[in-house]
Design brief:
The protein is mainly α. The chain is built from six helices and no strands.
């Protein structure tokens, strides 16, 4: 998931075709472990594909699959490739952002003079 998150961060940063070096730099910047096999696998699966289309396809697959839960991400990635993984990361990142926004709001509920 770290590799996919790094790929998505590169995309969000404006790099429409991130390389393995780009992903390594992002992972190094946060002290994450680098797995060369996963980097190469992801890049080979998304090569020549539009990230927006991958995310849309992954969302559609998740919505149409009534028997698959988010906990089965590993099995679905084997069957459906990187598309499901990219969609799952996007969903998880959105949830994390929402949690962070909620916790940030709670931090401001204090008085300087109490």
């Amino acid at each position: 998931m770290k590799v996919i998150a790094a790929y998505l961060l590169a995309q969000l940063g404006g790099n429409t075709n991130p390389s393995a070096d780009d992903l390594r730099k992002i992972l190094n910047s946060v002290g994450a472990e680098i797995d060369e096999v996963k980097i190469e696998l992801l890049l080979s699966q998304v090569k020549g594909k539009d990230i927006t289309e991958l995310i849309a396809a992954g969302k559609q697959q998740l919505a149409s699959s009534t028997s698959m839960a988010f906990g089965c991400g590993a099995a679905s990635s084997v069957v459906n490739g990187a598309e499901n993984n990219v969609a799952q990361v996007a969903v998880e990142e959105k949830k994390e952002e929402e949690k962070k926004e909620e916790s940030d709001e709670e931090d401001f509920n204090f008085s300087l003079f109490d």
